[in-house]
Every structure is written in C-alpha cells, then in structure tokens.
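Study both lines:
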Amino acid sequence: MKRITVLGATGSIGLRTLEIVSSFPEEFSVAGVAARGTTVERLVDIARKYAPQAIALLEPEAVDRLAALLPRPRPELLAGADGLVALTRDVPADVVVSALVGGAGLLPTMAAIRAGRAVALANKETLVMAGRLMTTAARHHGVPLLPVDSEHSAVFQCLCGHNRRDVHRILLTASGGPFRELPKEQFATITVDDALRHPTWKMGAKITIDSATLMNKGLEVIEARWLFDVAPEQVQIVVHPQSVVHSMVEYIDGSVIAQLGVADMGVPILYALTYPERRPTPAARLDLARVGQLTFFEPDPARFPCLRLARHALEQGGAAPVVLNAANEIAVAAFLDRRIAFTDIPELIEDALVDVPAGELESIEACVAIDAETRRRVERAVAARAGRKSL
C-alpha cells in the first residue's frame, strides 16, 4: 500500500487526490496532510475520514482552532512553514503530492526530495522559482518528479518510450481562458467575477485568475523547461478552446504525439500515483464524434502580456523567475481583493522585473530571500496604486 502525503489537502487538487484514495482503499493510505488553515472544519472531516499521522497548517493560529475541534487521540499537529517541512521530511510516505498554491510549496517540496520521497507535482511555482535547484536535487537523491498538471502529465505520457534527444518541441495547450475573444480595449473593465468564470476547468481562485491572464501558461513554459530538460525555445503554446488535447510533443521526424481526454484532473493525479501503471476508473470517456471539432490558434501576446513577461524571465534566468512568480502572486491577490484592476497585474509584474538581482541562485535560502523581498516591493507598489485610485 502506498502512503500518500497531500500538501494543499483542502484545495481542488488535494480534495481530488483524497477522493482517489477513497476509490482505491487497498492501494493508498494517507500519511499526512497540509493546508494553509483557512478551512479548519474541512480538515476535521479529512482527519476523521483518513486518519493521517500528522497535519501541518501554514497559519499557526489555525492549529489551536483545529486542536479544539479534534477529539483525542488526534494526529500530530504542526504549524507554520517549519511544520510543513517537518511533515514532508519526517512523516514516512511513498509519494508527496505537492499541491499547495504558490511559493508556499517550495520548502516542503524540497524537503520531500531530500528525504527521498517521490513527488507528484501540482505546484508549478516550485519549478518556476527554483527549477535548477529542484531538478538537481531530484537527480542527486534519485527522486522522480511526476507531473500532475494536465498539460505536463500529457507531455510526460507523450514522451514515454521515446528518446528525449529526438524531441523537436513541446506544445502546451491552453484553453485561452474567459477572455480569449475579448477585445483588448475592454480589458480595463474586467471584474473579479468575470475573471473567475473559467470556461472549462473548476479550480482555485489564484490559478483561475492566472488562466484569465494566461500567466498560468507562462509559468507552465518555465516548468516544462526544467521538468523535461529542454531549451526554452522548444516549449511553445497553442490555444485550444475545447481542452480535449491536453498537450503534444513534436519529434524531429515531424511526428506529433498528443494526449487527449476529458477535462478531469483525476486522470493525471491517478497516473502520477500509480506510474508506470494505469488503473481503470469510472471517469467519463472521450467521445470524439460528439466533440466534433478541435481548433487551435496562436495566443495573442498583445492582449496577454504575461506570456511575454514569463518568457523574458525564463530567458533572463537566475532570480528573474522568482521575481516573476512573487510579483504575480501579490498582484493576483490584490486583484482578488479588488484593490487593483485586472490590467494592473502585468504592469506590476513588469515593474518588478526591472530590478532583478544578478547571478545564479545558489541555494533555496537565496530563493526564499528574493521571493520575500519582491513581495514586500510589490505590496508597496500595490498600496501606491490603490492610494492613487482612492484620491
């Protein structure tokens, strides 16, 4: 039986992972869970149903609330960033599902790698911020990084059985988000509610906004560069509104291999948990005759400047992707709080990228320091913009 630790257990990926554990009780058990701590009542239900050995909460004050609601004997309760690291480092597990949103997943994911645990990676920011450090550590410790994002899982499946040296390019598909046909001059009027209406996927608020700006695709380009060890120019994006083709790999002979399926995150999650095997599931099956038509077109960087900014950060290297990710997280949070406009998001990111520390990142600690400083800088910029609008 595989023991699973789930980081981000109360998010969409985490909850879907737990559903899969319930569907295969003879194959999986829950060793530990982690979450930010904003939904303590849900964590109580998870603790009662799955009996994890330990629970880690990023928000320390939430630990007391959880302790008051859980009867004894209860799981070990861990708090803060150190608690998340201790969970992945010290609690025995065969697979750690890294599904925390944003930079919070960086340290516990590295701790899991250093502890020799397989990582099912749904937290793209981890490789965006520290791709070279993470992949180097994974090779050193003999740890597989198994992609959970539907696009990277698709690429992973298309690469199986083929020589990596024969890859010409990777084609990541994008739904295009809710604004793929909206004229650029109307972007200034986009509201939070508008941006949260994704046409295909049901996801958390942060990644849904990233899908609306197409920053999610920019982050996925950076992630793919490290995950599959390809040159930045070998990773390209194609908009595919039907979300049936999850991604493709083109080989040097011109052959293109694609992975298709219904829009169900349970499929890539289960594949990561059982790789290299597959399991039968009751998931809906793809009916191409009913789909009828598959369309593809290039994204518009003029309307979605986050694509250009992500590509620039990848090409610049060093600390630039860390700055990109931190600025994006702060800007998206400010937009969700209705403190800035939708069009302010790429502007804040571009301003942050003007001042990037020189040189390569030599340690996770350096990455964390640059991330924290960037967040402080962008928060000040957000406050300045919000102040001007209130005058």
User: Anything to note?
Assistant: The mean pLDDT is 94. The chain has 16 helices and eleven strands. The first helix runs from residue 12 to 23. The longest strand covers residues 28-35.
